[in-house]
Design brief:
32% of the residues lie in helices and 20% in strands. It is of the alpha+beta class. It starts with a helix and ends in a 6-residue tail after the last strand. The chain binds a DNA duplex (13 and 13 nucleotides) through residues 1-3, 5-6, 52, 67-73, 86-87, 102-106, 152, 154, 161-164, 208, 241-242, 244-245, 255-256, 276-278.
Length: 287
Amino acid sequence: MPEGHTLHRLAGSLTKTFADQRVQTSSPQGRFESGAQLLDGLVLTHAEAVGKHLLVSFDSPLRLHVHLGLYGTFVARRLPEPTPVGALRLRIVGDESYADLRGPTACELLDDDQVAALFNRIGPDPLRKKPDPERAWARISKSKAPVGALLMDQSVIGGAGNIYRAEVLYRQGISPFREGRSLAPEQFDDIWNDLVILMKDGVKRGRIVTVDKSDMRAMADLDSDRRAPDDRDLDGGEDTPARRRARRATGVYVYQRTGRPCLRCGVAIAAQEFYGRNLFWCPGCQN
DNA sequence: GAGCTATGTAGAC
DNA sequence: TCTACCTAGCTCT
């Protein structure tokens, strides 16, 4: 389930697996049948990511555009290919491997103009080679919208999602409720630079870890009471699935850690629905 | 095995 | 603002 780092990792994996191979494509589910027919028999040249979008190029003017949405998957495995099961939108078969795409929000073919339009509507991506953070700052510095919402807006910054939003604001001690225009330029620079570090690390690891090495031990100690009786009584409530999830998430400071004490100030991590998504933050140290 | 939830977006209204 | 997308990991029974 992807933020930008997942897509960049996927693009690298698809390139490595299929580059310069003539591929067979099909849409067993039928929802991408015409597109799969157009791609069938072409040479896949490379894949790249921009924000949370994936673009796959072939020896053709058309490019495959995929957005995985909340629960799409695109997984490559070694041949032999198994019989398709369930809602399989697209299968790509190469010389030694195949890849299955399931449940995407977008799976379509784009021409050059449409690809250009896609790039235009996505903000600078911290994982691209030469992103232009000034574009993001131009939007944020003029906006009355809360910075917690701006960081999730893909036209402001491409690729950051709910976890990176929560974690980078915590790491920089900035309240998600502050208006974008109230940030100092240096604060934006710190957010951007931290995103670059965290997201690159996410690509490398294949998962999001935002806790600094120097805090790892303290976080583990903080969570060492996983089965302690008072764990159920942080705010007087019963144990819940959310709380159990939170206890497992030791690689992050605030995301899905509702009710757990903040590593730095001890105040309970807060959560609320915010612009239709769950927002997590520390009311003690994010101002 | 059933039920719930989630790292997201597009499109309908 | 609501709904579709229809996966997959987790918990509960």
